[in-house]
Amino acid sequence: MEANAEDEIILSSLPIERGFGTPGMCLFQEFWCPSTLVKGLNIFHKQFQAKESDIFVASFPKSGTTWLKAITFAIVNRQSFSSIDNHPLLTSNPHQLVPHVEMVCRGDLDCSSIEPRVFGPHTPVPSLPNSIMECNSKIIYICRNPFDIFVSAWIFFDKVKPESLTSLKIEEAFEMYCNGIIEFGPWWSHMLGYWKESLAKPDKVLFLKYEDLKDDANFQVKRIAEFLGFPFTQEEENNQVIESIVKLCSFEEMKNLEVNKSGIVFQSVENKSFFRKGESRDWVNYFSPSMTEKLSQIMEEKFGESGDIF
Ligand code: PAP
């Protein structure tokens, strides 16, 4: 069967909802997938051939993907770009250097032939291709406080949605979020899937938190490099290579680059929309007491038995 015919059959048989920024999302393999990505996801799931050296920067949207893509790219390519002055991150958005793997599979983005290849999936664990799980490729997952994810997502998707789609009021978006209805949601099963995988296979999956990166980026960058098999030498540490990567990838530096003020990725998304505040706990400026109570309850219910995920 041709891919298009197969896509149509899949799409027509799936439940559909509007997303935060997408007119139609399908419940595809138990998560909400923008219908425009079903084709890419299906190809990714069934045909993607991972290489041993591949690195996957996985995340639920708005958890710190852009930041971790930049850090990972800078760590693994530091021998090629030892001079920070002409580093690709100064002239390209991290999403151009570390492509959205579902879009690569859909045929919209090129993937680098340089190894290690670094990709950014938003796909939850159960829908990852077997080839990723069966080889020695590495997955780094970035998780963020669900309160901050909600605010970041509500604001981001409102900016990038098609003009024909009405804006969601915060109460409407919150209701959807609490029901797991958001691009790549439910967010709790996304996080739990990678959390459990990181506990079962600590050499395969590194589970990071946005808040920990904010607290001590130097320590986390060192930890990521060791996990990926690209540890810093003593000489590099003495030469402040870790600090220079942290600075290059910092919110303030990246937000103020010309490419991130004026460029576009994924055909129509402004690079600047990926850099808003870059802070933890901005949610306190948006949540009412009843929203706080409701989301806290959901987190207790979903994560209560999962130890210290938060
Ligand atoms: P994506 O999943 O669509 O790629 P993602 O990068 O995960 O988005 O999320 C963007 C959030 O990361 C924004 O958070 P905010 O809305 O709360 O501000 C953005 O500001 C933040 N962000 C982007 N780059 C950095 C960075 N270098 N350091 C810290 N936070 C960052």
UniProtKB/TrEMBL annotation:
SUPFAM superfamilies: P-loop containing nucleoside triphosphate hydrolases (SSF52540). It comes from the Eukaryota. Its EC number is 2.8.2.-. It is an enzyme of class 2 (transferase). Residues 53-307 form the Sulfotransferase domain. Keywords: Transferase. Pfam families: Sulfotransfer_1. Transmembrane segments: none annotated. GO terms for molecular function: sulfotransferase activity. Belongs to the sulfotransferase 1 family. This is Sulfotransferase.
